[in-house]
Design a protein that fits this description.
heterodimer; A: 1071 residues; alpha/beta; Small Protein B, Chain: A; eight-stranded mixed beta sheet; seven-stranded parallel beta sheet; 36 helices; 37 strands; B: 442 residues; alpha+beta; Phosphorylase Kinase, domain 1; Transferase(Phosphotransferase), domain 1; 3 domains; seven-stranded antiparallel beta sheet; six-stranded antiparallel beta sheet; 13 helices; 24% strand
Chain lengths: 1071, 442
């Protein structure tokens, strides 16, 4: 096979110019070339000679750099060389492969008679086995050095090693036989992979490959076999596991939809913001009512997947109407649709759960996974990183991590670790993992990284490619996107929540800033004498052109133009204005009245027997007379009317028909046409004239100094009033985009940037909280750099509970643990030790919490994993003067079991504890020393949160809202917050109260069948470190735990036991 | 998405963007800024054909001089719809009937207040009356189908959705909007005709003025859908039924402040006896007259700018005292007695009034004086009048011809008023007798 026949690998092509060095006498197209890089020079070795090359366009230069950085095994060849015979420019095609294998021992493949026959058939004549072997070799071995392309396949049977060789027109499947020799099992046509096929990476192997007659081939074992086995083992790895997980998610989606079922409706009509359906079995529907806002779909027939079909994809055709469930009243079901949706549901049919959103999501994940698995994504080594394998090391960048602007992102001086984090993020050859324990300034580091990257992009004049900021939730994305500026443009958030009206991504601030700037500039300009008047004139003309009114006839506008603007116009236009204005008529032209008369007469024509018997002939005569005056009748029409007028008896049915037809035709002829339903005739001329005037005035103004002011004024107008237009424009030019994981390749993004979008850099914030498959979506599109920022010791992505349950049955514990670990944690752990270059940084100084609290959190949750951090800010910064907790940083408010036990249910609660929490909160908020302090109340259980809110009502801090649920009173809303842990990650408060909620009596040891289970039953969520870590790292000055001291002191939850200990010490208090 | 449609006349109309959507179709703006296109969405090909023929018929109806957005050009296959006038700067009257925001009185004022609503409703009812007088029925009056100007001082209206316009004598499919369909229409006892139009207009007028649906009171609203449907079929008493309190409406503006006696009487006939028996229902012309007369009887508050009925001595919106105003009584001339016609109580029979406050010009509604445009303006204690009429001195000795030039009448204290005659003294005609009121009871 020749290089030019290659179709595999990641293909890029670039234009190169020969910059220096020996000119090759002749470089043939199709010749193989080797690209090397050293000391800032690119050298191409081709046809026995070396030449120095450089990229032609900036894109080519960037590509060369990327190739050099990645340093992946590649095969390159010259696509074209111009001009012949001594070329100066080349087009080079580069095929990159994720891996190169090197085996010293020759590899011999046995060929049996079946294969010989097959090949003979292909070649059209019987061939001897030696020729067959030669031919096969020629097909798959790359000329030049001994190289082949192979893919390791799935294991056909235990103990068998199998792979596929890729050739120009064919592919050869090879497997070990029972005799441990390699046999050619199949020869097939080479075909492009179809979507949905399981894709494996194509790997370059340097090996002396030979095809032999079956008896001559030797046994296959050793290093080569082990490597191939390992490659095949990818079938069992993490990625395949996730595929299974995804499959199960599909199952659970289907299950949910099947549970709801399909409900028939008989009629439908519009209702306010959507559609109202009359349901046949409303009572049945009432029993399975979904949540408010659930998306339901309307189809004519019951969808296939409700039966046995597993096919989720919708049949081709117009997309069906999807609406949000609003209410079910009587037999009327109301669904809401967005304003801009003008699809119509069928008149009768079925309502069922909509899978459109789910399907799209699952599809996006599948695509991303598949791309990464086959290493055909823009960063092929990503798969290696994910599998924990050795990556062919690329080069590190040499960007200076700090700059003045970056420094400004930090409050105070950045710590050495923070600078290191920036260095790693900016200079990593592929991926950077930054762990930010609570309060370590992770957000500032991200901002500084962005600033530096923006500066780099500006240096390269914005040609650095696109920059994506992503996170798992819209709010996080919006936070991350604000405060970014590249080339003076803000980040553009792509994709939106359903029914989201406002987006807080920093765009509005930028717009306000710029509107202000333009306004200031405008104010600074001297306004010319005619500017304002000219503006008004142009507006009036534009207004008239847009909607001319009957009153303001063209002629009178022309007169106004002549009088007001005459001196600004060139002589011809002035003359035209004058002549048009002289044609002004004050009232409607007389023709209209004649026409009215004629219309009246036509309408009075009798075309039916009853009317005819009144005055039929007379009306026909009248009509004929009027219309002949106006010259509106053809001779046949005139004859018809004449004979009708002369009729003595009743006309025939045929004549009535003719008369009716004539009446209709005449009405049509006489009715004013829509174009006449405006100003008088001669209008087209007037319109043209006015457009010319507009243009002439604009020219004139532009030539004066007023022209600048005019342009600025229009810009200012756009900034002030056309927010949407400016946002649109910015999103097309900005290089920084922000989107959630799912929507980073969603419809909105594709609309703007096209399919196959690639990002130069992807920053994934709160990376520990994103579902791995979702996170893969933006990562699979990253080209140069991925920066993941997060903390795996805090909250992680939520697994769908029922999928987790389903998996428990099928997959081993180790794999389950693997599933629970986020992508972030996995990468963090695998890339941390002994890797060069360094890719992982843990920030090590926290500034949020009192040193005692900081020390506690570090000791309990981070030091055991060697991720500990210090608390340099002195304790004096975190003082509080609350009378109830003097001199304390930690506190325990004891609510013993005797005061009240926990209440079970789906979620746990403990009213006695809630009362205590409310009392403590009231005590704190009423303390004068608490002015300006914020208080957070956390529980792991949503039922307890409700209970606490209820207790707060009792304490006078909250009140029942319109729907009966308690809400914190307005005066405290800014200072007090109550919620579960999930709502609190990323937030901080001066004082935090944690309600443990669990309190129960242990069963006697004899009754405990499984002590593990017993612990889980009694302590539940409290056993999960992540949640505790978040809950206990929110407080800046004072952390109070409210709960049953006996249950936790010295108990099985280490963090709480230690905390109780701390409370008995010098910094704590137990009440 | 920009696309072109072709009219039956072969002209190409370019649609630029969608303006709105309803149950039967959607309305798009046509490039050029003067026209709009209504596209009816109906899948079946025969239905479309029938619709096109019907629209063609509607297009030819004699309504081109009325304030309606009628079909101008029917669209060619495959589209089904028509080109109509684009109502720039106008919006459905719905926004005058649905309060927006917490402060209802602020909103009521900001959207024009009482006088504007009366004016706009009178204009719309007048147009419907003109249709009826040509033996045409509109079909589906509803809040969405009457357009009013965005400008809250403007009183013009336009009727849209004239697709169902038809000769009142011809039967056809019953189309109605729930809440506005007459009881007999809803119950299927009748098709569309001028009386069903009248009912709908009365409901619209009541809603816009009082912000309360005349048939849906507290009790009905609190019950299920079925009860509401029954109320709309006329099975419940209306909200202001004098004898039956079951359906009272506690929300909605107080009737005494908003409605004149004439309006209250007209509504009582619409929703009392007229609800079940359309023979007893007033025609829409009566409604139009009552609305116009009521509009003329409003004064403007100098404090908050709101308008209210002149009989209130304090502004019901802001409690400022009623400003001085001129009240012109409209009476009839008796050529035999050479004096105003007297009513049963011996005083001149008053057909209506026109209230004019300082600083504004008011036109006397044609409901009171027929054709002839008389406009009145007050400035201090002087009334300026213009229009075709004759001024007669209090002692009858002097007659002054009026024309388009404004003429002053001094209404100061101790001055007996001159009267404005809209005809010659030997024939019956209308007479305007102005009096100045300086606060206090009329």
């Amino acid at each position: 096979m020749r290089c030019a026949d290659l179709t595999a690998g990641q293909i890029s092509s670039l234009q190169l110019v020969i910059s220096a060095g020996r000119r090759a006498a002749a470089i043939r197209p199709g010749a193989e070339a080797v690209l090397t890089h050293g000391a800032d020079v690119f050298v191409l070795t081709v046809d026995g000679g070396d030449v120095s090359v450089d990229g032609v366009s900036p894109d080519d230069v960037a590509l060369l750099e990327r190739l050099a950085t990645r340093r992946l095994p590649a095969v390159s060849w010259v696509l074209a060389a111009t001009p012949a015979p001594a070329p100066q420019r080349l087009t080079l095609q580069v095929h990159e492969f994720p891996m190169a294998l090197r085996w010293d021992t020759p590899m011999e493949l046995a060929v049996d008679t079946k294969i010989v026959d097959d090949v003979s058939r292909r070649r059209g004549r019987p061939l001897p086995v030696e020729e067959v072997c030669e031919w096969l070799k020629g097909q798959v071995v790359l000329d030049g050095a001994c190289r082949v392309l192979l893919t390791a396949g799935t294991r056909p049977a235990p103990g068998v090693t199998a792979f596929r060789l890729h050739g120009r027109a064919i592919a050869i499947d090879v497997a070990t036989g029972p005799d441990n020799r390699l046999w050619v099992t199949r020869v097939v046509e080479a075909a492009a992979p179809k979507p949905g096929d399981e894709r494996r990476p194509v790997v370059l192997a340097h090996v002396d490959l030979r095809f032999e007659n079956k008896t001559a081939a030797s046994v296959f074992r050793g290093v080569a076999r082990a490597t191939l086995d390992q490659l095949m083992a990818q079938g069992d790895n993490y990625l395949a596991l996730w595929r299974e997980y995804n499959g199960m998610e599909r199952e659970s989606v289907l299950r949910r939809a099947r549970q709801f079922g399909a409900w028939q409706f008989t009629t439908r009509r519009t209702a306010g913001a959507g559609w109202r359906f009359e349901m046949k079995d409303a009572d049945g529907l009432r029993r399975v009512l979904p949540e408010q806002g659930t998306e339901l779909e309307v189809s004519e027939d019951v969808p296939g997947w409700l039966g046995d079909s597993a096919e989720l994809a919708a049949p081709p055709g117009p997309r069906k109407v999807v609406g949000a469930f609003l209410e079910l009243r009587g037999v009327q079901l109301t669904l809401g649709v967005p304003d801009d949706d003008d699809r119509q549901p069928p008149k009768s049919g079925w309502v069922h759960v909509s899978l459109q959103g789910d399907l799209a999501r699952l599809r996006a994940r599948d695509e991303a996974w598949s791309q990464v698995a086959s290493m055909e994504n823009p960063m092929p080594q990503l798969a290696f990183l994910l599998l924990g394998q050795d990556v062919p090391t690329g080069r590190r960048g040499t960007v200076e991590p700090m700059s003045q602007a970056a420094r400004a992102c930090f409050k105070g001086e950045p710590t050495p670790k923070q600078i290191e984090a920036m260095d790693v993020a900016l200079n990593t050859p592929d991926i950077a993992i930054i762990q930010g324990p609570p309060g370590t300034g992770k957000t500032q580091v991200i901002a500084a990284i962005k600033v530096r990257l923006a500066e780099l992009a500006e240096e390269r004049q914005g040609i650095g490619g696109l920059f994506l900021v992503s996170a798992f939730q819209h709010e996080a994305v919006e936070n991350a996107a604000s405060r970014i500026r590249v080339l003076g443009l803000p980040a553009a958030k792509i994709g939106h929540r359903k029914r989201q009206t406002e987006v807080h991504d920093g765009f509005e601030e930028w717009r306000a800033e710029h509107a202000g700037e333009v306004r200031a500039q405008l104010a600074g300009l001297p306004s010319g004498p005619g500017l304002v008047a000219l503006q008004a004139a142009r507006r009036r003309i534009s207004g008239w052109l847009a909607s001319p009114s009957k009153r303001d006839s063209a002629a009178s506008v022309a007169r106004w133009v002549y009088e007001q603007l005459g001196r600004w116009l060139p002589p011809e236009l002035r003359d035209r204005a004058l002549s048009l204005s002289l044609g002004a008529k004050p009232t409607a032209p007389p023709e209209d009245t004649t026409r009215e008369f004629a219309l009246k007469a036509v309408r009075q024509l009798r075309t039916e027997p009853i009317g005819w018997s009144d005055d039929g002939p007379r009306m026909a005569w009248l009509a004929r007379a009027r219309l002949r005056e106006m010259d509106q009748l053809t001779s046949e029409e005139s004859t018809l009317l004449a004979s009708a007028a002369a009729e003595s008896g009743e006309p025939s049915a045929e004549m009535f028909g003719q008369l009716e037809g004539l009446q209709n035709a005449l009405v049509d002829r006489l009715l004013p046409k829509p174009s006449e339903a405006g100003p008088a005739r001669g209008d087209a001329d007037a319109e043209g004239f006015l457009r010319d005037v507009n243009a002439a005035v604009a020219d004139r103004v532009a030539q004066t100094a007023d022209g600048v002011a005019l342009a600025l004024e229009e810009l200012h107008h756009a900034f002030e009033h056309d927010s949407e237009g400016i946002r649109e424009a910015v999103s097309h030019y900005t290089t920084v985009l922000a989107a959630t994981c799912g929507q980073s390749i969603g419809a909105d993004m594709r609309d703007r940037k096209g399919e196959g979008i690639r990002f130069d850099t992807v920053v994934l914030d709160e990376a520990g909280r994103a579902n791995p498959l979702d996170a893969m979506i933006p990562m699979s599109r990253a080209e140069r750099r991925i920066v993941m920022v997060g903390d795996h010791r805090q909250l992680s992505h939520l697994l769908e509970p029922d999928v987790e349950g389903a998996l428990e049955g099928t997959v081993s514990d180790a794999s389950q643990k693997a599933l629970r670990k986020s992508l972030f944690e996995r990468l963090f752990l695998s890339l941390r030790s002994g890797r060069d270059p360094v890719r992982v940084v843990t920030l090590d100084k926290q500034f949020r919490m009192h040193p005692v609290l900081g020390g506690f959190v570090s000791q309990m949750f981070y030091e055991p994993y060697k991720e500990g951090f210090g608390s340099p800010t002195p304790a004096s910064e975190f003082q509080h003067d609350l009378a109830r907790w003097p001199g304390s940083v930690v506190g325990w408010a004891n609510v013993p079991l005797a005061d009240g036990a926990e209440q079970s249910g789906k979620s746990k609660s403990r009213p006695a504890e809630a009362e205590r929490v409310a009392a403590e909160v009231a005590a704190i908020l009423s303390d004068p020393a608490a002015i300006g302090l914020t208080v957070g109340v956390v529980s792991f259980y949503s039922a307890q949160v409700d209970e606490i809110l209820r207790a707060l009502v009792g304490a006078g801090l909250a009140a029942r809202g319109d729907d009966g649920t308690p809400e914190i009173n307005t005066e405290y809303r800014k200072r007090l917050r109550v919620g579960t842990v999930d709502a609190f990650q990323g937030r901080e408060f001066d004082v935090v109260l944690l309600s443990c909620t669990r309190s129960s009596r242990p069963r006697p040891a004899s009754a405990q069948a499984d002590p593990e289970r017993e612990l889980r039953t009694r302590y539940g969520h409290l056993l999960i470190e992540n949640r505790l870590c978040v809950a206990m790292s929110r407080a800046e000055r004072l952390m109070i735990v409210v709960g049953d001291l006996a249950m936790f002191a010295g108990g099985p939850v280490p963090a709480l036991a230690q905390f109780a200990q701390l409370c008995r010490g010098e910094h704590g208090l137990v009440r | 998405m920009v696309r072109d449609v072709i009219g039956a006349d072969g002209q190409r109309y370019r649609l630029t963007h969608r303006l709105g959507i309803g149950g039967q179709g959607a309305v798009y703006a046509v490039e050029g800024g003067r026209l709009a296109a209504k596209l009816l969405l109906d899948r079946s090909e025969e239905r479309r054909f029938v619709l096109r023929t019907t629209l063609d018929g509607v297009r030819r109806l004699p309504v081109e001089d009325l304030a309606t957005a009628r079909p101008l050009v029917v669209l060619r296959s495959p589209e089904c719809g028509y080109i109509m006038e684009l109502l720039t700067g106008m919006a459905p009257i719905t926004k005058l009937a649905r309060p927006d925001g917490e402060d209802v009185s602020d909103w009521y004022r900001a959207t024009g207040g009482l006088r504007r609503r009366l004016g706009v409703l009178a204009h719309a009812a007048r147009t419907v009356h003109q249709l009826h007088s040509r033996a045409l029925a509109w079909g589906d009056p509803s809040l969405n189908n009457i357009f009013v100007a965005e400008d809250p001082t403007n009183e013009i209206s336009r009727l849209i959705d004239t697709d169902n316009l038809r000769w009142a004598s011809r039967p056809g499919p019953s189309v109605y909007t729930d809440g506005y369909g007459a009881p007999e229409l809803k119950a299927g006892r009748s098709g569309i005709n001028t009386m069903t139009d009248a009912h709908a207009m009365a409901v619209i007028a009541f809603e816009v003025l009082t912000l309360c649906h005349p048939l849906v009171g507290d009790a009905v609203r609190a019950s299920e859908d079925e009860v509401e449907q029954a109320a709309l079929r006329g099975e419940w008493p209306w909200v202001d039924d004098p004898d039956d309190e079951r359906n009272r409406c506690s929300t909605g503006l107080p009737r005494e402040a908003i409605l004149t006696r004439g309006l209250r009487e007209v509504f009582a006939r619409f929703f009392g006896p007229g609800l079940g028996d359309w023979h007893l229902r007033p025609g829409v012309g009566e409604l139009a007259d009552a609305l116009a007369i009521a509009a003329a009887a409003t004064v403007r508050c100098p404090g908050c700018g709101a308008t209210y009925l002149f009989k209130d001595t304090l502004c019901p919106w802001c409690d400022t005292a009623r400003p001085p105003f001129v009240l012109a009584d409209v009476g009839r001339w008796n050529p035999e007695s050479q004096a105003l016609e007297l009513g049963a109580d011996g005083r001149p029979d008053r057909l209506g009034v026109v209230a004019v406050t300082t600083g504004e010009e008011r036109a006397v509604p044609s409901a009171l004086i027929g054709a002839g445009q008389i406009a009145l303006r007050v400035d201090g204690s002087r009334l300026w009048a213009r229009g075709p009429g004759v001024l007669r001195s209090p002692d009858g000795k002097h007659l002054v011809e009026m024309d388009d030039q404004e003429r002053p009448l001094d209404l100061g204290p101790r001055k007996r008023p001159w009267t404005i005659h809209l005809g010659t003294l030997d024939r019956p005609h209308r007479v305007l007798t102005p009096n100045l009121h300086v606060g206090g009871a009329p």
